[in-house]
Design goal:
By secondary structure, the chain is an alpha/beta fold. The chain is built from eleven helices and 14 strands. A six-stranded parallel sheet has the order 2-1-3-4-5-12, sandwiched between helices. The chain has a six-stranded mixed sheet with strand order 7-6-8-9-10-13, with helices on both faces. Helix 2 crosses helix 10 and helix 7 crosses helix 8. The chain is elongated, with a radius of gyration of 25 Å. It starts with a helix and ends with a strand.
Length: 342
């Protein structure tokens, strides 16, 4: 063999090794890039941000890969498009907010038929959905609890302004029905007006303010069962109730934006219901992780109540540990109560 031939063979061998190394590196990086779990958030929103923090915390505490994906708008079409792209990439477990209970049914079936696992969070999917779990606040129970709290603050009598969020939100009709059911039990309480289809704080403030201008002297209490409506009402009532001689309007809201908590601290508004969005993300990922590792559901579908706490001036600075303990308790019960090894 000539010197030139030896050089050529060595050169080709070196090139082969380099190309093989590049290929191995690429396959390795692609493998690590495909996290097993996708936590899908419909859009940038404080609630969604908290859910995402739960998913990130699960990844940090367990080492399980969780891809937190944020959509552009809370529509089923947008959810379908974004989740489909994650499906084709090879992600195996999906935690999804069912923005449209009926529309989500088709998406969940598509994922299940493709060998994927699906957990709904934040709201229950339509009956017969392919989701094996829903991790959420018990919507009816929470709305009932908030209404009872408001009526108690009103002394068992008076007129209520009921402020709802988006009519397309799966939880809105459930909350509306629960509030009306509670009010019907009290002969001296009535809903004087229902304000609905609110999607932004600005629109919420505009609608609440208009209602108070028209009938403020009659309103004794306001209930808000959505995040944006609660923030808008808290800010507005903080201004109104702080005025000397102003009629005190009782208030119970939902969620724990810092502006709402500050209004409670100052005594401008009465109470809000703290949900567990962190738990929605953390518990959903914990369920998917186990499903992907051979655990099987005890039943074909199970609802897991992530809990809620009434926040008042008395506990406004120390309610969070109670919420966190709910998440820890639920996670500790997953194996055995909700999932089993066959």
């Amino acid at each position: 063999m000539t010197r030139n031939n030896k050089f050529l063979i060595l050169t080709l061998l070196g090139l082969f090794l380099v190309l093989a190394g590049i290929k191995w590196s690429q396959s390795g990086s692609e493998g690590t890039a495909i996290d097993p779990i996708v936590l899908y958030l419909p859009l940038p929103h404080p609630y969604c941000n908290a859910v995402g923090e739960g998913g990130k915390a699960y990844q940090e505490s367990t080492g399980t890969g969780v891809r937190v994906l944020v959509g552009q708008e809370s529509t089923q079409a947008n959810v379908n498009t974004n989740v489909e792209s994650m499906y084709t990439l090879g992600h195996q477990g999906f935690a999804i907010y069912p923005v449209d209970p009926a529309g989500s049914k088709g998406l969940f079936a598509r994922l299940r038929d493709g060998g994927r696992h699906v957990v709904a969070y934040g709201a229950e999917p339509m009956e017969g959905s392919a989701a094996t779990f829903a991790v959420a606040t018990n919507t009816r129970s929470a709305a009932t609890q908030a209404t009872e709290q408001l009526i108690q603050l009103m002394g068992g009598q008076g007129k209520i302004l009921n402020v709802l969020e988006s009519l397309t939100d799966a939880n809105t009709p459930i909350r509306k029905a629960a509030i009306e059911e509670v009010v019907a039990k009290y002969p001296k309480v009535e809903i004087i007006q229902t304000v609905g289809d609110v999607t932004t704080e600005a629109k919420a403030r505009e609608k609440i303010e208009s209602a108070l201008v028209a009938r403020g002297d009659e309103v004794d209490g306001i209930i808000c069962t959505g995040y944006t409506t609660t923030v808008a009402a808290s800010v507005l009532l903080s201004e109104r109730n702080a005025k000397a001689g102003a009629k005190r309007i009782r208030f119970v809201g939902l969620d724990t934006d810092e502006r709402v908590l500050e209004a409670i601290r100052l005594g401008h508004v009465d109470a809000t219901l703290a949900q567990n969005p962190f738990g929605h993300g953390y518990i959903s990922c914990a369920l998917l992780d186990r499903l992907l590792n051979g655990w099987e559901p005890v039943e074909s579908y199970q609802f897991i109540d992530s809990g809620a706490v009434v926040v008042t001036r008395e506990n406004v600075d120390d309610f969070q540990p109670g919420i966190e303990s709910m998440t820890k308790r639920i996670v500790s019960e997953i194996e055995g109560k909700y999932l089993v090894k066959r």
